[in-house]
Design goal:
Blueprint lengths: L13 H5 L16 E7 L5 E7 L1 H5 L3 E6 L31 E2 L5 E7 L2 H10 L1 E6 L28 E3 L2 H7 L2 E9 L11 E7 L12 E6 L4 H12 L6 E4 L15 H13 L3 E4 L15 E9 L5 E13 L21 E10 L12 H19 L3 H7 L17 H12 L12 E2 L2 E13 L5 E8 L4 E5 L8 H13 L6 E5 L15 H26 L13 E4 L3 E4 L2 E7 H7 L4 E8 L4 H4 L3 E13 L4 E12 L6 H20 L30 E6 L23 H13 L10 H4 L1
Parallel strand pairs: 1-12, 10-11, 14-15, 19-20, 26-27
Antiparallel strand pairs: 1-5, 2-4, 2-6, 3-5, 7-15, 8-13, 9-10, 9-12, 13-14, 16-17, 17-25, 18-19, 18-24, 21-22, 22-23, 25-26
Helix pairs in contact: 7-15, 10-11, 14-15
The chain binds dioxothiomolybdenum(VI) ion.
The site of dioxothiomolybdenum(VI) ion (MOS) has 10 residues, from loops.
Length: 752
């Protein structure tokens, strides 16, 4: 039985990051005199480009090329792949550098110059003329015309579900609550902006429209394999002629989980000038070029018996998508699996607007939907005069209520109990406004968190060299999450080595394939592959050792040998018979012995419901005169299967909870309703939480053995920290003030 809560191993890449040794995409400088590309974004929300006058731009010093519809043929449409495979997509690439504009910020030109400053200046003086049309940007006014999603991009669940007859049961319920909740558009804003360095080799600057030469791209991405596939399609190249590399990512948050057109445009620019090109989005372009969380309007109705037993619920979500490509923010999806209630309905509808395509942003669907549903549960508790924790325990789902399947594991009860106790929930007096501290109104609120235990196919290779070094490889990514560290730990564990003895190599399409680092799936997917690959290597080493006539283990059956601390193979029956792994490799006459494994999800999806759960308790303080909300204290407990590294996992939970503070209190993208221009497209106007906004955060990692979810027993911790906490904050604000804010973020104006 593996340890359920793994050791607090330091981040393998920590030293490199703080000393500047970790190289991010934009920092790569391939041979051949790198030049700079700057994207020119459309200044209308819809219409035609009628002219691109590049006379002034082209005359400036250092300018190498101005690419637009006048001299560049459109790239190929990239059909989105199934999210369960490689997830390659490049929304709207076929529209770039054409004369048709379908959203504000769409790229109409690319300027390439010797230096970044020269390219920026040329982009500024480039004259683009438009015939503007009126974009359709009204979401709120068109909710009634919302349409069902054409495809289910987010999860393989239907858009609508119904169990029982919810309308009748709701009508018959003794206690009812109903509310409309809304969440705004939000932008991901990782510290590292999207950037691409593209270099052609072979055909060099030739090639023109299609084919020719091999392309290497250093791209800020959550999926090198997916990016390679999307680039090959868009540029009409053989997949083997594209290599994508990205060893360090300065935050992914989901925007880097989609491959965006600028990555292909960097390659187009490099081909046009016959030199490597570096292209980095501006912070402003991050708001119209790399996806966003789509706004939602969610109708939630709950009906219960007087004792709190849920009799029926309905959750109808409408979200925004772009007109040219669809993304569904699946907000009603998590509620299907949360509480025991056999009469329920959920629906998803979309309103199409003329903006850039929204996409997944950390805990897509889960954090928006659970905000609405867990606030509604709080409203129900108030209506019932029942403790919110007691209401949730009353309706605790022992099996998945949507499909009757058992959970692979579920320790939510322990989460409620442990977090409530550490928080001091028992001290809460239920009446709103009943707890104060000087001028501050004090509120206690709680909510449930949940996130699916996703898994993608993944391959890994572990190599033991004769010099004693051990390397583990997979074309996965580390978004700052700890992938390097847990891969090394996992391989080391199987070989009796300390974690620091194994070096992880990732994020290069030359390594064995892996999916995007999204959906909190990397540890489960790649971890399982690494574990199996390392176990395979161990078995190979044992077979070599027992066949080595001069070795100490000669003649034993492989089953009579195991690994021991220090990276040794040892006879089970006689500890004096042992040999270091490095000697096994050296004595075999080979330089390297390796294990490789291709791990795919099994039938666990058919047999089980697979989810991580958590419980979040928060204290807020509200200044009733100024409407200021502070969050001095959070206690959250999560049970997410096996925790490989309690230090990097805790950081994941903390990061999620910080994100949740932003969602609850600060973040909202403001769009000009006439053009689609994002008004607050920088970090002084788009507010994200800073350290001073996030105060005491206490995370409890509840041990949970899960023999069913996947070979390594991990559910993933990347996103669940964001789920539930916004509802807990909103519920605490209600408890402090008696004001129910159903529209995020909870800003001062909504409390005064
Ligand atoms: Mo995440 S939003 O699944 O990259």
């Amino acid at each position: 039985m593996p340890t359920l809560i793994g050791p607090a191993v330091d981040r393998a890449d920590g030293r490199l990051k703080v000393t500047g040794g970790a190289k991010y995409a934009a920092e790569f400088a391939p041979a051949g005199n790198v030049c700079h590309a700057v994207l020119v974004s459309a200044k209308v929300g819809k219409g035609r480009v009628t002219a691109v006058d590049d006379a002034a731009a082209a005359a400036l010093p250092g300018v190498l090329a101005v690419l637009s519809y006048r001299n560049t043929k459109p790239l190929k449409h990239v059909p989105p792949s199934e999210p369960t495979t490689l997830a390659s997509q490049m929304p709207g690439v076929e529209l770039m550098l054409t004369d048709r504009v379908v959203f504000y910020g769409q790229y109409v030109a690319v300027v390439v110059a010797e230096t970044l400053e020269q390219a920026e200046q040329a982009a500024r003086v480039l004259k683009v003329t438009y015939a503007a049309e009126t974009p359709q940007l009204d979401f709120a006014g068109r909710v009634k015309e919302a349409v069902p999603p054409a495809n289910r991009m987010a999860k393989d669940e239907p858009a609508d579900t119904e169990r029982g007859k919810p309308a009748d049961a709701f009508a018959a319920a003794a206690v009812k609550v109903a509310g409309v909740y809304s969440t705004p558009n939000e932008n991901h804003n990782p510290m590292e902006m999207h950037a691409t360095v593209a270099a052609w080799d072979g055909a060099g600057g030739g090639g023109g429209g299609g084919g020719g030469g091999k392309l290497t791209v250093w791209d800020a991405t959550q999926g090198v394999v997916a990016t390679k596939a999307a680039l090959a399609t868009a540029l009409e190249l053989k997949p083997d002629d594209v290599r994508v590399v990205d060893p360090y990512v300065g935050g992914g948050f989901g925007c880097k989980g989609t491959t965006w057109p600028h990555t292909a445009l960097a390659a187009v620019a490099a081909r046009a000038v016959g030199r490597p090109v570096r292209l980095m989005l501006t912070r402003g372009q991050m708001f119209t070029g790399v996806g966003y969380r789509a706004r939602t309007r969610q109708d939630v109705r709950l009906g219960a018996k007087a004792d709190g037993t849920l009799q029926a619920f309905a959750h109808d979500s409408v979200s925004q998508t772009s007109d040219y490509s669809e993304f569904l923010e699946a907000a009603a999806l998590p509620t299907r699996h949360l509480y025991a209630c056999d009469t329920a309905a959920t629906t998803h509808r979309l309103v199409k607007v003329d903006t850039h395509q929204p996409n997944q942003m950390r805990a897509p669907g889960e954090c928006t939907g659970v905000f609405a549903f867990e606030c509604a549960m709080d409203e129900l508790a108030v209506a019932l005069k029942m403790d919110p924790v007691e209401l949730r325990l009353k309706n605790y789902a022992e099996v998945d209520p949507e499909n009757g399947k058992p959970f692979t594991s579920k320790s939510l009860r322990q989460c409620y109990q442990q977090a409530a106790e550490r928080f001091g929930w028992a001290k809460r007096t239920p009446e709103p406004g009943s707890m104060t501290d000087g001028r501050w109104l004090v509120g206690y609120g709680m909510a449930t968190a949940t996130y699916p235990a996703n898994r993608l196919p993944a391959e890994a290779r572990v190599r033991a060299f004769a010099d004693g070094s051990v390397v583990v490889q997979s074309a996965t990514q580390d978004l700052g999450t700890g992938t390097y560290t847990i891969m090394a730990q996992t391989a080391a564990d199987e070989l009796g080595l300390p974690a620091e003895a194994v070096k992880a190599q990732i994020a290069d399409t030359n390594f064995p394939k892996a999916g995007i680092s999204g959906g909190s799936s990397t540890a489960a997917s790649v971890g399982s592959a690494v574990m199996m690959a390392a176990a395979g290597l161990r078995e190979k080493l044992i077979v070599l050792a027992v066949a080595d006539v001069d070795g100490p283990l000669y003649g034993l059956k492989p089953g009579d040998v195991a690994v021991a601390a220090g990276g040794k193979l040892v006879a089970n029956a006689d500890a004096t018979r042992s040999v270091p792994i490095r000697d096994v490799v050296a004595r075999s006459g080979k330089n390297v012995v390796e294990g490789e494994f291709s791990a795919k999800p099994g039938d666990e999806k058919e047999r089980f419901s697979r989810h991580a759960f958590g419980a979040v308790f928060v204290e807020v303080r509200v200044d009733p005169a100024l409407g200021i909300v502070r969050v001095p204290r959070v206690v959250a407990a999560y049970a997410a299967g096996r925790i490989l590294n309690q230090k990097t996992a805790r950081s994941q939970f903390l990061g999620g909870l910080a994100f949740a503070h932003g969602m609850a209190l600060l973040e909202a993208t403001v769009t000009d309703g006439r053009t689609g221009r994002v008004v607050n497209d920088d970090l002084s106007e788009y507010l994200v939480p800073v350290n001073a906004d996030v105060q005491q955060v206490d995370v409890i990692q509840v041990p949970e053995a899960d023999p069913f979810v996947n070979p390594i027993g991990v559910k993933g911790v990347g996103e669940i920290g964001i789920v539930g906490a916004p509802a807990a904050i909103a519920n605490a604000v209600y408890h402090a003030t008696g004001k129910r804010v159903r529209d995020l973020p909870i800003t001062a104006d909504k409390l005064l």
